[in-house]
Specification:
heterodimer; A: mainly alpha; flat; B: 31% helix
C-alpha cells in the first residue's frame, strides 16, 4: 500500500510537467498578448515592457525560464496586476474557492445521499418520482441559469439574502448561501441519481437476501450491508466532482462576485495574463490529480477486494 | 406422528405481477416437515421450488411478488401472519437458509467474522467475544481449516466450496430447527458437491435440524432425503417417501424424470431418455394439467381441468387424472 502511494504521488510529476508544457505553448497560440491594448503603445515603451518580462527572448528560452521558476515555486509576476505576483493572487483567491467548493460538495453529498437512499427505498413511488424529477432538472439546467434564477427569487424578490459578495463584505455569512446552493445543485443531482441506482442494484443482490434471511432489521440491512457496497460509485465520482466543483466555481464566482480563483482565471484568460493563466492551470491540475489519488486510496479502504501493490 | 410436525404448509400461493400478466410461481403448494426429517423438493428451473421456500421465510421481493394465500404454520404459528419483529426472530434463528451461489451470497465488503458474529449476537444474545469463539467453532465444524485465521478474512479470499461451508456454518450457528438449502451444490464442482451434501447431512443429523433440500438433481435427493415433493409449474404433482417414489413413481412427470437419470447399470448403446417438449410458461396458465402437452398418457380431461390430489398408498399423493376418482 505504501509503495502504491509513493508511486502514485511520483506519477503526478510527469503528468504535471506535460500539462504545464502544453498549456504554456497553447496559450501563446491565442491571438493577442498581455500588452495588446486598443490604444497602441509607442514601440519603444512596448520594447521596454517586453524586455522587462523577458518576452523579447525566443519562446523556448522563455519556456525554460518559466519551468525553472516553477521548480522554485515561483509562478512569476502578473503581467496585468503589476503590484502582485501570481503566488500572491492565487494565495489570496484560492482559499475562497476552496471554501466555497468544499461547502458545496459537502451539501451536495449530504443532500444527494439522503435523497438517493430515500428514492431507492421508495422505488417507483411518489418520493422517488419527485426527487428524480428534481435531479434531472439539476443535471440539465446549467449553472448560469440556476444562479441568476436563485438570485432573482431569494435576493431580489424575497430579499432574504444578499445578491453577491463574500464573507468579508457587509452581509457576512449570508453571502455564502446562494453561491453554495447554485454550485452544489448539479452535483447534488448527480450524486442522488448515482446513489439511487447503485442502492437499487445492491438491494436486489444475493448477499442482501442472505442478510435478510439472517433476521437482521431492515435498518441494519441498509446501513451495514447495502450502503458500503452501494457507495463505491459515489466515492469514485467524488474525485472528479471535487476538482470539478472547485474549477466549476468559475461561473458561480462570476455571477455572485465571489473573489475566488475562478474569477481570476476568467479575467486572466481575457487579458492574456500568461503567468496567471499558467498558475491557475497548475493549481487546477494539482487539485484534480490529488483528488483522484485520494479516491483511489479511499476505494481500497472501502472495497477489500482491491489491493494495491 | 403429527406431534412431530414442525412446519406445515397449506395451499401456499405466490404470484408475481409482471407486465406480461400474472405469473403464478407457486399455486397451491402443501407439505409437511417433521422434526429431523430431510425433505427434498425437486423440479426443473422455473417450477417454483425456490420461490416456495423464499415464501416460507417471507423473503419474496414485494412488489412484484405477492404471497396470495395459504398458511405456513411453524410450530403451530402462521409465519405469514407474523409481525415484522416476530418473523425476524424466526429468520436465521429458527429457520435458516443456504443459497445456490456461494460466490454472491456473502457480503464482499464485510469480513467473514462480521457476518457470522452478527447473527450470533442478534439471536443468541452473546457478546462479541463469545460470538467469535462460537463462530470459529462453527467454521471448524463446517470443515474449514485454520478457522481462527480464516475468520478474519474477506469472502473473496475463500474458494466457492469454502464459501458454501461458511454459509452452512452461518446458517447452523444458531442451531435452527429447519435448514432450507436452496440448490446448495448447483454452482459447485462435482467433487465439492458430494462433500457439501455430506456436510449438510452430517451436521443436520448431529444438531437434529430438519432440512428442506431444493434441487433439480434426483441423484442428490435419492442419497439424502426421507421424503420428496416433485414440483411442476408451481404445484406439487407427487409427494411421498423417497424410496417408494423411486421404486414406483406414479405421476408421468416423475416417471419421466426418473427415466432420464443416467445409470451405470444400463447398456451404453441406449440413448438417454428425455421428456419431450419444454416446461410451460406459467403466465396466465389456463385451468388444465400443465404437463399434458408433454405427457404420453394425456387424456381429454387433462386439457380442461387441473387434476385433484389423490392419495396413493400410505403417505403418498399424486395430482394426476390417472389416479383416484378420475380413473
Amino acid at each position: 500500500m505504501s509503495r502504491f502511494i509513493v508511486r502514485r504521488l511520483l506519477s503526478i510529476i510527469p503528468t504535471l510537467f506535460i500539462v504545464v508544457t502544453l498549456s504554456f505553448f497553447l496559450i501563446r497560440l491565442a491571438p493577442g498578448g498581455p500588452f495588446s491594448r486598443e490604444k497602441k503603445l509607442p514601440p519603444e515603451v512596448l520594447q521596454n515592457i517586453m524586455r522587462k518580462y523577458h518576452m523579447d527572448e525566443p519562446l523556448l528560452n522563455q519556456y525554460f525560464r518559466y519551468i525553472g521558476d516553477v521548480l522554485r515555486f515561483d509562478l512569476g509576476p502578473s503581467f496585468r496586476n503589476k503590484d502582485h505576483s501570481v503566488n500572491e493572487l492565487i494565495g489570496k483567491a484560492f482559499p475562497v474557492s476552496l471554501h466555497l467548493g468544499s461547502m458545496a460538495l459537502a451539501v451536495a453529498l449530504f443532500l444527494g445521499l439522503s435523497v438517493g437512499v430515500i428514492s431507492a427505498l421508495n422505488q417507483n413511488k411518489w418520493p422517488d418520482y419527485s426527487a428524480m424529477s428534481v435531479a434531472v432538472l439539476g443535471i440539465s439546467i446549467p449553472l448560469f441559469v440556476i444562479g441568476p434564477l436563485l438570485m432573482l427569487l431569494f435576493a431580489l424578490r424575497l430579499k432574504w439574502l444578499p445578491t453577491s459578495g463574500w464573507i468579508s463584505s457587509r452581509a457576512g455569512w449570508a453571502t455564502v448561501i446562494l453561491p453554495t446552493m447554485t454550485l452544489m445543485f448539479p452535483y447534488f443531482a448527480y450524486i442522488a441519481r448515482l446513489s439511487r441506482g447503485s442502492i437499487i442494484e445492491v438491494v436486489r443482490s444475493d448477499y442482501i437476501r442472505t442478510a435478510r434471511a439472517k433476521g437482521l432489521k431492515e435498518s441494519v440491512v441498509i446501513w451495514k450491508h447495502v450502503l458500503k457496497g452501494a457507495l463505491l460509485p459515489v466515492v469514485t465520482y467524488l474525485g472528479p466532482a471535487f476538482s470539478g466543483i472547485v474549477v466549476g466555481s468559475v461561473v458561480v464566482e462570476q455571477i455572485f462576485v465571489v473573489p475566488g480563483i475562478g474569477r481570476i482565471f476568467v479575467q486572466s484568460a481575457l487579458n492574456r495574463d500568461y503567468t496567471v493563466i499558467m498558475g491557475d492551470v497548475i493549481v487546477y491540475s494539482i487539485i484534480l490529480m490529488g483528488a483522484n489519488f485520494l479516491v483511489d486510496v479511499l476505494y481500497s479502504m472501502l472495497d477489500p477486494r482491491i489491493a494495491y501493490k | 406422528m403429527t406431534d412431530d410436525v414442525i412446519l406445515q404448509v397449506k395451499d401456499l400461493k405466490t404470484y408475481f405481477k409482471l407486465d406480461e400478466g400474472l405469473l403464478k410461481a407457486v399455486d397451491g403448494v402443501s407439505f409437511e416437515l417433521r422434526k429431523g426429517e430431510t425433505l427434498g423438493i425437486v423440479g426443473e428451473s422455473g417450477s417454483g421450488k425456490s420461490v416456495t421456500n423464499l415464501a416460507l421465510m417471507r423473503l419474496v421481493p414485494v412488489p412484484p411478488g405477492r404471497i396470495a394465500g395459504g398458511e405456513v404454520l411453524f410450530n403451530g404459528k402462521d409465519i405469514l401472519k407474523m409481525s415484522d419483529a416476530e418473523i425476524r426472530e424466526v429468520r436465521g434463528n429458527k429457520i435458516s437458509m443456504i443459497f445456490q451461489d456461494p460466490m454472491t451470497s456473502l457480503n464482499p465488503f464485510l469480513r467473514v467474522s462480521t457476518q457470522l458474529i452478527e447473527t450470533l449476537v442478534l439471536h443468541q444474545g452473546l457478546d462479541k467475544k463469545a460470538a467469535k469463539e462460537k463462530a470459529i467453532e462453527m467454521l471448524k465444524l463446517a470443515g474449514i481449516p485454520a478457522p481462527e485465521k480464516r475468520i478474519d478474512q474477506y469472502p473473496h479470499q475463500f474458494s466457492g466450496g469454502m464459501r458454501q461451508r461458511v454459509m452452512i456454518a452461518m446458517a447452523l450457528s444458531c442451531n435452527p430447527e429447519i435448514l432450507i438449502a436452496d440448490e446448495p451444490t448447483t454452482a459447485l464442482d462435482v467433487t465439492i458437491q458430494a462433500q457439501i451434501l455430506e456436510l449438510i447431512n452430517e451436521l443436520s443429523e448431529r444438531l437434529g435440524t430438519a432440512v428442506i433440500l431444493i434441487t433439480h438433481s434426483l441423484g442428490v435427493v435419492a442419497g439424502m432425503c426421507d421424503n420428496i415433493c416433485v414440483m411442476y409449474a408451481g404445484r406439487i404433482v407427487e409427494k411421498g417417501n423417497a424410496d417408494e417414489i423411486f421404486a414406483d413413481p406414479k405421476h408421468p412427470y416423475t416417471q419421466g424424470l426418473i427415466k432420464s437419470v443416467p445409470r451405470l447399470d444400463r447398456e451404453n448403446k441406449q440413448r438417454l431418455y428425455s421428456i419431450p417438449g419444454q416446461p410451460p410458461n406459467v403466465i396466465n396458465l389456463p385451468d388444465c394439467c400443465p404437463f399434458f402437452p408433454r405427457c404420453e398418457r394425456a387424456m381429454d380431461i387433462c386439457k380442461s381441468k387441473y387434476p385433484p390430489v389423490s392419495a396413493v398408498g400410505k403417505g403418498r399423493s399424486v395430482a394426476c387424472w390417472l389416479y383416484g376418482e378420475g380413473k
